[in-house]
Write a structure and sequence with these properties.
The complex is a heterodimer of chains A (209) and B (617). Chain A is an alpha/beta fold and 209 residues long. Chain A has nine helices and five strands, in the order E-H-E-H-E-H-E-H-E-H-H-H-H-H. Chain B is 59% helix and 17% strand. The chains are: A alpha/beta (209), B alpha+beta (617).
């Protein structure tokens, strides 16, 4: 399955519900993948697939909440919409706390489910984009030499070239070369951009070395 | 003093007294014919006695001729009477008896047709003979009738008859029979003496008075002795009867006292005459007047109209050969109150297997019936309560169970709407959707139907059914709840079990209870392996056994004896009724319900049900 097209995965042990929900989502234009147990989902689902997961709570062996825990432990970013027969408040609180995007009860109205799925897919896409960007940045950041990282930390803390040269005990001209290199490697044009980038990488507040 | 004039009448009077006595006895008890024949013998002897006296005193030839001829008549009656007397004791050959009689009758005929009488062709003279005490008596002398030999011959025939009868009796061996044998021999002997003496006198070999009547005396005494033996025995019997009658009366009194104390009504129905005798207590029980005559229809009239015809039918059917009738019915009392009676009775038949009478007792069981009814009501109420309780526990699960088809229906329907509004042709898809909607709707209806069955407070209906289907039905109901609680059910249902006679709904309730209990026992454990229930059905060889096994913490030893008691519970929310009701239900099915702790932890509940007709499916 092409990982770039959003797919809605549905897990429910009740085949008729599984079929009906999948049918509804197909009628609304979604790609669907159906799984009749949590284990089947874990075995067969591609973690890189874009989309979301519509998950039943009460299932034999591994139930919905347990599957959610397993996925969290695997750092999965797949947004989860719970769809349950008898959801109570403690259960929904627990699900939402564990990061579920929505908690719906059966029978579910099509528009509620579809909007929840759309939201979830958007979220997933955004997270996915963010993540791609971040990965890119991290790759660029990884290209920096240790000295360049040193210089970067000083630059983003707002120090002048002179101060940096003094602190590192090297000539100002060398600092300028390092600075130009790291700006080029990180593909930024201004110090402001550099600061924003550092913030996203999470290296602003902590010493880099 | 002429002693013959005194002795002969004395003999006659004593003989007549004896005859009279026995005649009276016979008159009182007509079936005792021996007394009659004895009387006839005795009277005949008395006649002979009189004739003897007249002959001995006679001086007229004609008179002697006349008397000697007529003496054959009482002789005949004596012969016949003695034979009849012997026959009264069921002995003596009949043909011998006839022969004796015929000989005697011939003698009588010849007596009147030949000569002057049977002894003499002609009496030539009367001789005065002197005997003891200076008496003189008359003795006839003449030419002997050649036929006179017939007298001794008939005499000998009678002797043969008597001795034969005696021998027969002797061989019977009983005391009574032997005593009679001796007595008959004695009679024979004395007969021989008496008749022999008369013959010798007539023939003229000895000169003595006629001693026939005197010689007959011992015969009569012996006969009378035998009869009086019976009389004495009757007296003894009467006496012991009196004693036993007294005892009977006392025991009757005791019985009556017991029956009054127990409020038992005793009755006896004479079926042949359709008349019912009963004690006063029985009349009170049936509300019938003390004086009223009772027959079968009268009793039926007192019964409740619903019980009347069935009772009639049962009794008339039973009269075809059954020995006992037991039943319960309602009686409507004159004040329109209803009284329940239980009846136990015995039917008696004659040797043609026709019913003669029924003897029985009736007892008032109204209080017991009322208590039974109350108990039944209570039990029904409890059963219903427990159903509602179980249902309360199940309601979440049932909501989920219903939610599944509803969810599927809604999603399917909305999908169809979307497909229909889209431009592409999705008719195939819509067709599938509609089929699915129909199926789901049926599924929902099924669940509701099952629910309604369990909730319904219907009367118990015992029907042959397969326990496996009941287990599967119940599992369908609790499926979602079990899943919700994360409990898995393993069922191992033997296909080789016979049908049982049971009420489907009650059995479902028992299973529901046991499964929910098992579920409660395991749902708190964290270990997935322990969140399991095992249901097992099998035929044990004597009964169908269902086991519900859990892997929970088991039952505490102290609790084990109490878990089936009412209002005993270990659950915070429990009422303590579930298992008590389960046991009541299984008891009502003539089965058993018990619990055991498993070796590997957890508890098992077992119940057994007897098979339907004891056949294997």
């Amino acid at each position: 399955m092409n990982a770039s097209i959003p797919t809605v995965s549905i897990v429910d042990d009740d085949i008729s519900v599984l079929k009906a929900v999948a049918r509804l989502l197909r009628s609304a234009g979604f790609n669907t993948a159906i799984f009749s147990s949590a284990q089947q989902f874990l075995d067969e689902h591609n973690p890189n697939t874009l989309g979301c997961l519509v998950l039943d709570v009460a299932m034999p062996k591994i139930n919905g909440l347990e599957l959610q825990q397993i996925l969290t432990a695997q750092n999965s970013e797949l947004p989860i919409i719970f769809l349950t027969g008898h959801g109570d408040i403690p259960m929904s609180v627990r699900a939402i706390k564990q990061g579920a995007v929505d908690f719906l009860t059966k029978p579910v109205n099509d528009s509620d489910l579809i909007s929840a799925i759309q939201n979830a897919i958007e979220t997933n896409q955004m997270t996915r984009q963010e993540r791609t960007k971040l990965n890119e940045l991290q790759q660029r950041f990884a290209m920096l030499t240790p000295r360049e990282r040193e210089v970067l930390s000083h630059v983003i803390s707002g120090k002048k070239n002179k101060q940096i040269a003094l602190e590192l005990g090297i000539v100002e001209k060398t600092i300028k070369v390092h600075r130009a290199h790291l700006m080029e490697k990180l593909q930024v044009k201004s110090v402001a951009e550099l600061v924003m980038l550092s913030e996203r990488l999470g290296i602003l507040s902590s010493p880099l070395v | 003093m002429n002693w013959i004039n005194i002795v002969w009448p004395m003999i006659a009077s004593s003989i007549l007294t004896l005859a009279l006595l026995h005649l009276i006895v016979w008159f009182k008890q007509k079936q005792q014919r021996a007394h009659l024949f004895f009387s006839i013998t005795a009277i005949s002897v008395a006649f002979i006695n009189g004739m003897e006296l007249i002959v001995m005193r006679s001086v007229s030839l004609n008179e002697v001729v006349f008397l000697l001829r007529w003496v054959q008549v009482p002789l005949l009656t004596i012969w016949v009477a003695i034979i009849c007397y012997v026959r009264c004791f069921n002995t003596g050959r009949l043909w011998l008896a006839y022969m004796v009689c015929i000989l005697r009758v011939c003698a009588l005929i010849l007596d009147f047709t030949t000569g002057q009488n049977l002894f003499f062709s002609e009496i030539t003279s009367l001789k005065q003979v002197a005997i003891l005490g200076g008496e003189t008596i008359t003795i006839a002398q003449g030419v002997l009738n050649p036929w006179y030999i017939l007298g001794p011959v008939s005499m000998l025939a009678l002797l043969v008859f008597m001795i034969d009868a005696s021998i027969t009796l002797w061989h019977q061996g009983t005391d009574t029979a032997r005593r009679r044998a001796v007595i008959f021999s004695c009679i024979a002997f004395f007969l021989l003496v008496s008749v022999g003496q008369a013959v010798l006198v007539n023939v003229g070999l000895i000169h003595s008075p006629y001693l026939a009547s005197i010689s007959f005396m011992p015969t009569l005494f012996v006969m009378s002795h035998e009869l009086s033996y019976d009389v004495i025995r009757s007296a003894k019997l009467a006496q012991s009867l009196q004693i036993s009658e007294n005892e009977l009366r006392r025991s009757e009194q005791r019985m009556e006292l017991a029956m009054t104390a127990a409020e038992l009504g005793l009755w006896e129905w004479d079926i042949v005459h359709d008349h019912i005798w009963c004690t006063d207590q029985a009349r009170v029980l049936y509300g019938i007047n003390k004086t009223e005559r009772i027959d079968f229809e009268r009793v039926l009239k007192t019964l409740h109209h619903e019980d009347c015809e069935p009772t009639r039918l049962t009794i008339t059917t039973l009269l075809a050969g059954c020995d006992n009738y037991e039943g319960e019915y309602r009686v409507i009392l004159p004040d329109n109150q209803i009284r329940w009676l239980a009846v136990r009775s015995r039917i008696e038949y004659n040797h043609h297997q026709q019913p003669l009478r029924i003897i029985g007792v009736s007892i008032d069981i109204t209080k017991r019936k009322q208590a039974d009814l109350d108990m039944q009501k209570q039990r029904n109420a409890l059963t219903h309560l427990s159903r509602v309780t179980v249902l309360g526990e199940l309601s979440g699960a049932l909501a989920h169970e219903l939610n599944q088809p509803l969810a599927a229906i809604l999603s399917n329907a909305q999908a169809a709407q979307r497909f229909l509004t889209s431009e592409n042709n999705h008719l195939d898809e819509v067709h599938d959707i509609l089929q699915d909607i129909v199926d789901e709707d049926k599924r929902a209806a099924d669940i509701i139907q099952r629910l309604r069955l369990i909730l319904k407070n219907a009367d118990i209906q015992f029907r042959p059914l397969n326990v496996n289907y009941v287990v599967l039905d119940v599992l369908k109901l609790v499926n979602s709840d079990l899943k919700h609680r994360g409990v898995t059910v393993n069922s191992d249902l033997s296909s080789d079990i016979p049908l049982v006679t049971a009420d489907n709904v009650l059995l479902q309730q028992v299973l529901l209870n046991l499964i929910m209990n098992a579920c409660d026992a395991v749902s708190d454990t964290d270990c997935i392996e322990h969140r399991q229930i095992h249901i097992h059905t099998q035929w044990t060889g004597t009964a169908t056994q269902v086991a519900v096994k859990d892997y929970g913490t088991g039952i505490k030893k102290d609790d084990m004896e109490h878990i089936f008691e009412r209002f005993f519970t270990t659950k915070a929310q429990g009422m303590g009724l579930g298992l008590a009701i389960c046991r009541t239900i299984i008891d009502a099915h003539k089965g058993q319900l018990w619990a055991e702790n498993n070796n590997g932890g957890g508890a098992s509940f077992y119940f057994t049900l007897p098979s339907y007709y004891g056949e294997t499916t």
